[in-house]
Specification:
Layout (H helix, E strand, L loop, with lengths): L3 H4 L3 E6 L7 E5 L2 E7 L4 H22 L3 H16 L7 E5 L7 E4 L4 E5 L7 H13 L8 H7 L5 H14 L12
Parallel strand pairs: 1-3, 4-6
Antiparallel strand pairs: 2-3, 5-6
Length: 180
């Protein structure tokens, strides 16, 4: 039995009389919406839906690194900005962090990143990782901590991006820090 169809999200096809040749797809909540010209046959529709859903899912997958990818990325950032001082045991995505972008437990050397970061620019993800990596050897948000974090060249830009995203989503940043 093919389980890939069962795992596929609901697809809604919207035909448009104004569309002549273009086909596009995007996510709307839990479903995928495929926009096609009204003149397409049912066979063409089926082919385009399959193509566009696959294309969208591939694109989304590229934007969602695995936990193993996150660990590898964190180790590279540690080497680059901290001389390898920060070695996490694990880095993983979590769905239950809605008020924080990331968190770190220095005792067991684990880093958790909010799934809300998936699909954000890579430099924003890297900034959050650098921030959490710095907690592995400096648990407090003191001047020393920020000195380490600010080694990341796009730190201020990423802080602004996350603050803007939070404001647009009407989320309040935790007092004293936008990450943890």
């Amino acid at each position: 039995m093919d389980t890939s169809a069962a795992a596929r999200p609901e697809v809604e096809v919207r035909r448009s009389k104004r569309r002549r040749r273009t086909v596009s797809a995007y996510r709307e909540g839990d479903r995928i919406v495929v926009l096609i010209p009204a003149s397409m046959s049912r066979r063409q529709e089926a082919e385009w839906v399959e193509t566009m859903v696959a294309r969208l899912e591939r694109s989304e997958q590229r934007k969602k690194p695995s936990d193993a990818d996150l660990l590898k990325r964190a180790l590279g950032l540690s080497d680059r900005y901290f001389g390898g001082l920060a070695i996490p045991e694990s880095v993983r995505w979590v769905e239950n962090q809605n008020a924080r972008w990331g968190s770190c437990t220095p005792i067991d050397r684990t880093i958790r990143l909010s799934a809300r970061l998936q699909g954000m620019p890579s430099w924003v993800l890297d900034y959050v990782l650098v921030h959490e990596l710095a907690h592995l050897f400096e648990p407090n948000h003191n001047a020393r901590f920020w000195g380490w974090v600010d080694r990341f060249p796009q730190a201020e830009r990423a802080k602004g991006y996350l603050a803007g995203w939070s404001a647009a989503a009407k989320l309040e940043a935790p007092p004293g820090d936008e990450l943890d």
